[in-house]
Amino acid sequence: MSKPVKSLMTQELQGRYAALDSAVWVDVVGIDGLSTNEFRRSLHSKKMKLEVVKTALFRRAVADTPMARLGDALTGPVGLITGGDSPIEVAKLLDDWAPKLKTLKLRGALLEGEYIGEPQVGQLSKMPTKRDMQGRVAGCARSPGANLAAAIKSGGGRVAGCLKALIEKLEKQEAPAA
Fold first, then answer.
1. CB-based burial of residue 73 (10 Å sphere; 0-12 exposed, 13-18 middle, 19+ buried)?
2. pLDDT of residue 169
3. b or e along 97-136 (b: 16 or more beta carbons within 10 Å of the residue's beta carbon)?
4. At 127, is the secondary structure helix, strand, or coil?
5. pTM for this one?
6. At what angle do helices 87-97 and 33-45 cross, to 10 degrees?
7. For residue 38, what pLDDT is reported?
8. N or C: which end of the chain has fewer CB within 10 A?
9. Which helix (H) or strand (E) holds 48?
10. How much is the pLDDT for 44?
11. Helix and strand tally (H, E) in the chain?
């Protein structure tokens, strides 16, 4: 490949990956074309993208970006999946596809600038997504207020019940006297 072509490809890769801080590295060697197309369609429907890139060009393109940590770890054929809300969603999708794509292998991931190697990347699909964590935090923040409102409401209900019983008692006492 000539230097001008390498330069153009590097610039193109810089445009795609310079602003990203998360991606999943997969090994797609040995997967047939039909399965790959189905897999890519599934990724596309979830706003994710699989791209096979040349390792040396990728390293050069992301040298001074958060993706550099992933670039340093890459070896052999490189398939990068980007997009979606987080790499955790990508890992969950890959778990769903694992029975269909026997040779698909998770090699590593970059999660908001932190590199996760092959031994730990398998646990990525078991982690809660960002949306799940936000829901948990919102639930925790809402919990004390909800408990306070329930306590106030239940106390008011008890007082109202006592007042109602007292009123009924007084009405019964007044009824025979009249």
1. middle
2. 86
3. eeeebeebbbbbbbbeeebbeeeebeebbeeebeeeeeee
4. coil
5. 0.68
6. 140
7. 92
8. C
9. strand 48-53
10. 92
11. 7, 5
Flag whether pLDDT at 72 surpasses 80: yes
- Scan for tokens 């990068």, then name that residue: 80
Handedness of CA 52, 48, 132, 101 (dihedral sign): negative
The tens digit of pLDDT for each residue in 32-56 reads 888 889 989 999 998 999 998 888 8
| CA distance to 1, 88, 89, 135, per residue, from 132 (Å) | 46, 11, 11, 5
Q: Looking at the DSSP assignment, which residues form a beta bridge with residue 105?
A: 27
- Closest by CA to 130, choosing from 166, 85, 165, 175, is 85
- How far apart (Å, rounded) are the C-alpha atoms in residues 10 and 53? 11
Nearest Cα to Cα of residue 27 among 115, 127, 98: 98
Whole-angstrom Cα distance, residue 116 to residue 121? 6
- Amino acid type, 105: K
The DSSP 8-state label assigned to residue 122 in this structure reads G
